[in-house]
Design a protein that fits this description.
Length: 144
């Protein structure tokens, strides 16, 4: 089974050496069930989750204000955001976790970008591992 992609790349692009990334997963279950699992998973890891129109979850962590003032020195309060899109697909629900190359760059410079890339990659890997352990992961493809 192949994982289809959308024509537009959204916030995450197709990946680059600058920290952009995307993980495409096929997960067993209907869209609503998978979205609920995803929201609970990321919330347990300290992310705020907002249900966005168009079958997307907006993930945020940290403090914008503290990050504006302190930049990459904000530590664990460094502000990060990402999107997880979900849609029905053949063989399950298609899940697209994406983040941009500029994530963390504007507010934290090069150190902020590295911090953001690391945090997003860790979340993506943890999500993949959890779904695999639960027997729900059908397929995965990473870009960036």
């Amino acid at each position: 089974m192949s994982v289809p992609t959308r024509g537009g790349q959204g916030a995450g692009g197709t990946g680059s050496a600058c920290g952009a990334g995307r993980a495409l997963l096929v997960v067993r279950g209907d869209v609503d069930e998978v979205r609920a699992r995803l929201a609970a998973f990321v919330a347990e890891r300290g992310w705020r989750v907002t249900d966005e129109p168009g079958e997307e979850l907006l993930l945020e962590r940290g403090s914008r204000g503290r990050t504006i003032v302190l930049g990459s020195l904000a530590g664990r309060a460094f502000y990060l955001s990402a999107r997880i899109g979900t849609r029905a697909g053949e063989g399950g629900t298609l899940v697209e976790h994406r983040w941009g190359a500029g994530a963390g760059l504007v507010l934290g410079g090069t150190l902020g970008r590295a911090r953001a890339a690391r945090a997003h990659a860790e979340l993506s890997q943890a999500l993949e591992s959890a779904l695999r352990e639960q027997g729900l992961l059908v397929q995965v493809r990473r870009e960036g």
